[in-house]
Specification:
about 260 residues, mainly alpha, 12 helices
Amino acid sequence: MTQVKQTQTLGPVERLARRDGLIVLLAALLIAGLAAWYTLTGAGVAMSMDPVWTPGYALLNLLMWWVMMIAMMTPSAAPMLLLYVAVKRIGPEGHRTVWLSLLFLSGYLLAWAGFSLIATLFQWQIEIFDLSMGAMMPITSPVLGGAVLMLVGLYQFTGVKDACLTHCRSPGAFLADHNRPGAAGALRLGVLHGGYCLGCCWALMALLFVGGIMNLYWIAGLALYVLAEKTLPKMHKFSGVTGGILLASGAFLLISALT
């Protein structure tokens, strides 16, 4: 009865503070939602068929890639993020749960900023060598497109892919092994988790170059596939099927181009 009375006498701020998991989840959804909106509106990048790679244009493309990765990858990080919130809530740093959880999410997104930089550099090169249909368009070279498909297909069968996916699918074990106290520990943990997520998903993100960087069907499809691969119990078995389909598709493109 005493606990009920205490709960009833809590003000709105105190009641909200106790719902730190909800706060962090809503913050993550807001970030992903804003990123998705920015991507849907074209990410501020002009769809010119003959883009000029000035430093400003390069920076805009880097931002476009990072925002797109935030929109695509934040939902798949939700299980790990919510478990981190639960662990911090019951520990000695419970009073800083929301702050540390947002730092964890920031570290995760920073890891994808690294991928975005590499993707921007690759995009720059294929546009310079006239291997794509202008800004945001798919690769026009069947040889390069086939090579990308086969590379992604082969990666689906590698031990690196399997090991990274195991870490992403086992948030409890990951936190038990790598959780550290303090703000630096939260940021480090986020970067580390982002690194494992990058290890299991970077090749799939490369498919955007084949389907079209701003192709919303590819963006949504890849985001859903990544989420399923990391969360559904038997989805890891489907990775081999996906790899086989990608290998066959890539081989078909290469053979068609060389014959």
